[in-house]
Amino acid sequence: MTALLRAEDVWKAFGDRDVLRGVSLDLAAHEVVALIGASGSGKSTLLRCLNLLEPIDDGRLWLGGDDISDPRVDANAVRQRFGIVFQSYNLFPHLSVLDNVTLAARVVHRERRAVAEERALALLERIGLADKAKEHPDRLSGGQQQRVALVRALATDPEVLLLDEITSALDPELVGEVLELVRELAEGGATILMATHEMAFARDVADRVVFLDDGVIVEQGTPAQLFGAPREARTRAFLSRFTS
Description:
The protein is of the alpha/beta class and 244 residues long.
């Protein structure tokens, strides 16, 4: 498959600590890839580098055939091609749900408010939150806020959706409703790269699972292969925490 998004030998350090050490990864259009690994393994840093929120120290990044690691590139224009959702929702508390969802379309993409709101209301209807359009985020549950954050990321029709541990801040009973929306997006053909600690979800939804440890991709494969018969001792040791 031709890669839509590609990282080639990417290095990233913070101070004297190498957080990413020669990471190479491809993501094909309509593919769902789950990044797994312990906290501090480099998952979130990799997502932030791909979205140009963090500059890389070495290597190259490609999106749809464009070298987005070229220092001359317009980083803001590149970020408009991604949708990214963090674990902490990052909704604007002073804006309504509808204004949160439409903000990027109106301000960045210069869409008319009526057009942006029509699409936003359709997306909110799809996730059962159309009746919350005029509410502010503090009136929503954590699961509802995270679903709004997902819809906000989808509202500009991104080429790639990056999900960074989006259930980590949720109470256990709210995790399922967010993961169900991600499942629907995956089944609908979205291109998704997600860092997750939800092993069962990665097994069920991802086309491929990538295990990072200490800034290195140790192993990757289909969920059946990686969870059922991991080749590397480090992978087996990590997964044993979830099966013991």
